[in-house]
Every structure is written in C-alpha cells, then in structure tokens.
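Record type: ASSEMBLY
Status: queued
Input:
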Amino acid sequence: MAGKIISKFFDIDGGNTIDVYERHGGYQSIRRVLKKMAPGQVTDEVLKSNLRGLGGAGFPAGRKWSFIPKDSPKPKFLVVNADESEPGTFKDRYIMDRYTHGLFEGIMIASYAIGANKAFIYIRGEYVRQAENLVEQIKCAYDRGYLGKRIFGTNFNLDLVVHRGAGAYICGEETALLESLEGKKGWPRMKPPFPAIEGAFKCPTIVNNVETIAYVPTILQEGGEWFSELGSERNGGLKLYGVSGHVKKPGVYELPMGTSLREIIYEHAGGLQDGRKLKAVVPGGSSAPVLTADEIDVKMDYDSLAKIGSMLGSAGVIVMDDTTDIVRALYVVTRFYHHESCGQCTPCREGTGWAERILKRILDGNGRSVDIDNLLNIAGNIMGNTICPLGDAAALPLKSYLTKFRADFEAAVSDRNGVGKVADEPVSLLN
Amino acid sequence: MSKVAFSQESLSEFERIVAQYPERRAAMLPTLYLAEKEFGHISPEVEVYVGELLQVPAIKVREVLTFYTLFASKPRGKLHFQVCRGISCDLRGCTKIIEHLQEKLNLNSEETSADLAYTLSEVECLGACETAPMMQLNDDYHGDLTTETVDLILDEKK
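Status: finished
Output:
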C-alpha cells in the first residue's frame, strides 16, 4: 500500500508553517522546476501523472493546463477553487489548515507551467479561520522571498491573493466563481469560451481545486509515472476521501484512487454503529447518485463510478444506516439545491422549488401517489437544461433516490396519506 | 454624496485591497466585508458609499449584497449561531440542536433578539461534516454537538 502524501502533514504539529514544511522537504520541487524545466515539460509531467480535477469534475489537470493559448499577449491567471461547499465534503479545509505551504508550492509550480504571475485562492466565506491562516502564511512566504519578484533567483514572479467568497454554493462552479472574483453575483457563464481562453478579467485562466494543486509538488518531485502508478487506470495517485454520516470514525482518509467503497467505509471509517445495517451511500458529495448497500464493492475512481451510473465527484462519502428516513434525506438534499440555485435558469430555479415542496408535503403526511412520478418528471426536465451543472446536481439525487428506494417513497405516500387534512385536495406547488 | 464614510484606517485598507486586482470592481466582496466590520451592517447608505468607492452604480452593490448569504443588511446579534442543516448534520441529529437553541435563546430560526444579543440561523453545509452535528458561532466552528455541549458553549459566551 502506498504511503500518504498530503495527509502525513495532518498529524505533524505546526504542519501549516513554512519551517516545518521545509524541514520535511518542502519547496524543493519548485526549486528544481524553476531551474531545470521548461513550462511545457511541467505540464507534460502532470499529463503523465493522470492527475484528475479533484474538485469533482475529474477533468485531467494537465490537459486543462495545455488549453492556455501560448501566443496570447494577455496576462494569465491561476485561480484555486477553495469554495468547498458540496454537502459531505471537507477535505480542502484540512489541506488549507495543515498543508498550507504544500498548497502554495503547488500554486507556484502550476502558475509557472501556465505562465501566470498572479494567482488567487477563492475561499468560501465561512472558512474565516482558514482564510486567516492562508493570509498569515502567504506573508511568511513573501518574507522568505518565495513569493513576489525573482523567486529563487530566477525570472519567475508570482503574487498570491486570498479572495473570500460570501456564502453561495454556486460559486464553486468555475465560471460563477470567476464572476464572483470580478465582484459580481455568482451567475455561471455560458461555455465556450472556456476559462482557459477567456476567464478572469477576460484573460486566459486556469481554475483548479485545492486538492488537485496540492498534489502537484509531489508529482514534479517523484515523477508523473510514479504518481500515476499509485492509482488505478487513468486515475492517477492518491485521493482524499471524506467520510461522514453513520460511521464510527468520520474523517478524511488519503488512499489510492480506486480503493473500494466497502474498504473505505468498513476498514478506514470504522464501519457502522453496532447492530446497524447499511441502507444507502452517497459516494461523492450530495449530488452524486445514491448507491444501495449492494453496490459498495465499486472502485472509488472517476471511471468506475461513472460505469455504475454514479460519480466520484468530490469523494465526500455520506453513509446512511437503516435508521435513515430516505424521504427526509432526499428532502434535505433537495432543499439545499433549491436554496443554492442561483436563479438564472428557469428549470433549476423553479424545478428545485417544486421538488422541495412536494417532498415536504410527503414528509408532512400529505403525499399523493402521483407525487413520485411528478418528482421524476421534474428531475427529467431539469436534467441537461441549464447553463451550469447545479441543475443536474439537483436532478441526479431525485432520480436515483426515487428509483432505487421507490418502495420507501410509496410507503411514505400511502402510510401518511390522509394524516394531513388536504391529502385529496389539489395542493398548490406555488406556496 | 453618501452620508457615511470609512475611517482613515479602513480607507487605507481599502486602497491596499483595490491594488490587488486588475479591475476596481473586483474589490466588491472584500470592500463589503470591510464595510460590515466598520458599520456593523450594510445599510442602503453604505451601499451607496461602496458604489462610489468602486465606481459602480449602487444597484450593482445591492445585487451582490442580496445574492450572497453572509452579508448583513440588517443588524445581527453579537453572538450569531449558524447551525448546519446539511445532509450529514441532519443524519446525525442537527434538528435536536436547532430546537434546543430555539428554546434556549427564545428565538425562531432566522430571528435576532430585540437586545441584539443573539441571532439564530439555520445554514447549508459548512464543510465540517466529520464533526456533525456542528455550528458556526461568529467566526469559529464547534463540532460534535450535543445539547449538553451547546449549553456549555452558551454559558461560556454569555
């Protein structure tokens, strides 16, 4: 089994500080890169590593970098997505708190590869303490000459700015994030143009997740092939899996890409409370289609989960035991997407609200048998019909919970039917 | 001209912030944070002032202010309890925590006490699911909550 890369710093006292990071070999990778490698070679090495976009989309990081136009006279920007807001996801918080300079070193290498002299970390507004730590540690890096002008005596310059969001899940979507960085409400943009061509301030921009960037120094230190072999086919390296819900030891576990979901739940997260049985698992943040207890022998990587109709997403594993009211779980998840819908596209803005209200009335004992198919119908009409993936993120749980646990919903409708007084009356969706 | 203005200290902080961006307007969110710190909440007068500073119409400030959840357009309590109601916290009993705080603070969710001592909010996932159920009290996270630990926190902060 491979060792740990990022999480070995989680247990080191002062792991967030520049001294401790350097004592453990930090900032060696960037020194080598700046002295010995051309930017294109850095991108090639990341391509070889099969490092995927670990925020959720899984797009190969090296390929993304290669889309930056080489001949553009405009400034280029690197924007690190630290908006971590997908329910069930908390890995980037650990990285920012405890692998702070590893993240910075990754930012330096990535900026060098794409030709950026300015990088932003867009961090969700609620992470106040994390933002304070970043600002403080950035100052230490400047003081030591690792950021600013002529880094390590080369011609490479880089400024790094922390930009706090202000409470909007949608800003984790890369084009909404760029709008927000520019001082606007976070409404996603139509693509194309993709950010690599026209991103922040109309300039070529790469947006990468915190975890993606945090693996970059090790990849350049140990080689792309080495990293690639730690994972599974086309899914390079290790991955931080966050486990929450009904397990004995919720937490972040760094394991090879492709580790089985069963192993993650039962060996690393300590399994379920005694006497409880597994009912359902969401493998990759709340938008990932739910899995039943029979489906957990799947490899946790982007391709294997896609094959069984779910997704790795942010690898936030949410475990539900047999005490879970699956109707309530879907209600809570749908309420979230309704709350966070930015309002730009009608199918998402209206559909998520309709779905939330129908689920609420089922929970309140006013469900009707047509509700289940109406919900599926709403999901089908959101799916694929919106500018950004938030619509899909709302539709996927609706479809999967309602299909895989249909009996639970039918029971909820018939058991509770008549409990509330308006059960047989038309119920307006608009209230 | 707006009726409010930053202190000299905030003004220099504002200039430092603006210089970090290639465009003035990009300083919108940090400027609103700065304004909230100085004025307590973002009143319509403050919106106009921020618009002047950033050289955008006040409506562009309003648009941002109302889009994001973290900015206060009305006064908030000195202690702001934001209890996470995300799926992982729901699975681990956040409803009990919310009901307990409602009772203890004598507030419904999304209400502020008349003396501006407390505000209680239910919020979406705060990204600390491994400590569910959890809440944010002003700037700090508190996890693995039980009604007993909530009481301890309350006693300590009162």
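Annotation: Chain B touches chain A at residues 20-23, 25-30, 32-33, 54, 56, 60, 63-64, 67-71, 82, 85-88, 90-92, 123-132, 136, 139-141 (CB under 8 Å).
Annotation: Strands of chain B lie at 79-84, 111-112, 118-123, 135-137, 140-142.
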